[in-house]
């Protein structure tokens, strides 16, 4: 049986879905009777594109890539791990380096993928960015703190003492 390349749908850095096919990432441009995916390197001049059916189970047509368009056989693994790291950093309150260390140690247990885990330098800003979206920034000064009305009264209905001058 011939080696048939697989189609993988993976979350990208913008939170959208990317298609990974033959070591290259594609972003969805149009979906009507079939889906049109452009190479993620299109800003660098790559005209690579593929058309898939609506279920994204088979490739209908494809355009060639330029020679300088990179191919990465482990792109699916890298994108999946980065998505896991950013998801955990947004959901958990553990320190970001602790989350990274847990995932890196779990990945190093498998020798086949240990060398392809993304370095902390590459995922650090994405992890901190997703956490910042989830948790609001604290105000710079106490007077800037806005307390909603329901939290300004006690259960008995009296005004809650915020500070005493």
Could you describe the 3D structure shown?
By secondary structure, the protein is an alpha+beta fold. It has two domains: 7-63, N-terminal domain of TfIIb; 75-134, no CATH class. It has three helices and six strands. The mean pLDDT is 86.
The level of helicity is 25-40%
Strand content: 15-25%
Distance between the termini: 82 Å
| Largest beta-sheet details | 6 strands, antiparallel
| Helix count from the secondary structure assignment | 3
Mean pLDDT: 86
Spatial strand sequence of the major β-sheet: 1-2-3-4-5-6
- Report the structural category: alpha+beta
Q: What would you call the shape?
A: elongated
Radius of gyration: 23 Å
The total strand number stands at 6
* Low-pLDDT windows of residues: none
How many structural domains are formed by the residues?
A: 2
SSE string, helices as H and strands as E: EEEEEEHHH
Organism: Trichinella britovi
Domain FLYWCH-type: 12-61
Keywords: Metal-binding, Zinc, Zinc-finger
Protein name: FLYWCH-type domain-containing protein
Task: Provide the fold topology.
Elements: E1 7-11, E2 17-21, E3 24-31, E4 35-39, E5 49-52, E6 59-63, H1 75-91, H2 96-108, H3 120-134
Helix pairs in contact: 1-2, 1-3
């Amino acid at each position: 049986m011939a080696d048939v390349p697989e189609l993988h749908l993976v979350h990208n850095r913008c939170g959208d879905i990317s298609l990974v096919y033959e070591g290259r990432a594609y972003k969805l441009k149009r979906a009507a009777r079939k889906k049109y995916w452009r190479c993620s390197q299109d800003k660098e001049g790559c005209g690579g594109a593929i058309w898939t059916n609506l279920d994204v189970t088979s490739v209908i047509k494809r355009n060639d890539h330029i020679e300088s368009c990179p191919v990465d056989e482990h792109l699916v693994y890298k994108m999946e791990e980065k998505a896991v790291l950013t998801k955990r950093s947004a959901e958990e309150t553990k320190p970001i380096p602790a989350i990274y260390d847990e995932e890196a140690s779990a990945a190093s247990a498998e020798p086949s993928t240990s060398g392809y885990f993304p370095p902390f330098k590459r995922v650090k800003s994405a992890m901190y960015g997703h956490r910042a979206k989830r948790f609001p920034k604290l105000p710079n000064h106490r007077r800037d703190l806005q307390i909603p009305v329901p939290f300004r009264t006690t259960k008995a209905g009296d005004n809650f003492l915020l500070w005493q001058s």
